[in-house]
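Minutes, project check-in
Item: structure for the 233-residue chain
Input as provided by the requester:
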Amino acid sequence: MMCNTSDALFVIPARGGSKGIPRKNIKELCGRPLIHYSIDIARTLAPDCNIIVSTDDDEIRQVATATGLPVDYVRPAELGGDRIGSREVILDAMDWADSRGIVYDKLVLLQPTSPMRTVRDVEECLKLYTPEVDMVVSVTEAACNPYYDCFEVGVDSSLRVSKGDGSYTRRQDAPKAWQFNGAVYVINPSSLRSMPMGRFSRRIPYEMPKSRSVDLDSPVDWLVAEKLMESSL
């Protein structure tokens, strides 16, 4: 692909200080470093100059470049801690892209911790995106439904259902609830510069099955992803 032929900027965030699964971004999953799965997806859909691996870690940078992708951007050290949110990381990458004259009108965030997303998942999210929305985001049906089996502690210290009056006796009768699965975010750059993602009011969901919605936060998640991926080979 030629540079500046893509209207999307892809950002793959990969800090070095993972705690739940140490060094997870470069840990081998089914024979490949985890970050390679996200890089492959991005390179299928955009020219290399429209793909930014955002890392503060030299080893992650080396593993990423082993795919053939140039990793010219260097995340500032002050954006490398676990208390730094995605927005700050993305905005810095956008500023760098702007300084390089990279052309884009939407931003695609691909977190390495979702290795089971497919090219089609990203393509479908891109199709749903319009400049009138703040974000298209991949979701899966929530494991806990606030109308049925998700509870909060009330003022009397007892549990009460989070939403509604607790009248639903079957989960399938309750309104469906969704959760972000972490796989794909297609973000309006203007919206991101204006406000945190939590304040976005125009969020369009793209549903993914639970079988491809594993988000790698713990060793158990890793084992689940490994088994699912091995079974699909």
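Outcome recorded: The radius of gyration is 19 Å.
No further action items on this chain.
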